[in-house]
Amino acid sequence: MKKTILAVLFSSLMMGSVAQAAPLSADQEAQVRKLVRDTLIENPEILEEAIVALQAKQGERQQAQMKETLKAEHDALFNDPTSPRIGKKDAKLVLVNFTDFNCPFCKRFDPQLMDLVKKYPDDVAVVIKYLPFKGQTSMDSAQLTMTLWQEDPKAFEALHHKFMQKQGMLSDANIKDALKATGNDKLKASDKSRDGIRTNMMLAEKLGVNGTPATLVGDELIPGAIDAQQFEAVVKEQLAKLK
């Protein structure tokens, strides 16, 4: 009974009828407070239901914001000439991976992305957005790799993989060694690569990316380095939507 009364009270509040009525007296307010308290104690599941409803509304809001951002920033996400791309130009599904050469989770996750492109060559491609969060060598390696992409796209992957395969944080010496090993020891970071990183930072902020790795798969943002099977399942689900 109390649960029904509380529901009616809440409905009245939502419809505004209570706001139009005379203000409650002190005794009436105390009675309402007691009714609410007693009902919640007797039916604590109401709180769980409210939390679930709140989370659902927040999820809907976030999804709507995501769609707006994807529409407004489509070119910056998928067609920025400073952002490296792996896979076919006409792939059905283009993932956007935010990553950092000094991020241990990125180093673990990167091979999963490469494997998916190989497994679904006609369907999946990846655009790489470097977010150099972890120090100067993150910034330097990102700028150099983006510059190489602009100057010699075919040579880009070798340098990217060289940086990703280095365990731990990159040092200045590691960067020099990687450049030499891939035949790019004269490579210098371009101004366009710096502009590209600023664009990546802007996109990350708009999408709510707070760390790396984070991967945009269709209209779903996947934070972290999730299990390979789980990630493939998400990709297959998004591919199914395109059929």
From TrEMBL:
It comes from Providencia rettgeri. PANTHER family: THIOL:DISULFIDE INTERCHANGE PROTEIN DSBC, THIOL:DISULFIDE INTERCHANGE PROTEIN DSBC-RELATED. This is DsbA family protein. It comes from the Bacteria. CDD domains: DsbA_Com1_like (cd03023). The keyword Protein biosynthesis does not apply. InterPro entries: ScsC_N, Thiol:disulfide_interchange, Thioredoxin-like_fold, Thioredoxin-like_sf, Thioredoxin_domain. Keywords: Signal. Residues 13-240 form the Thioredoxin domain. Residues 1-21 form the signal peptide.
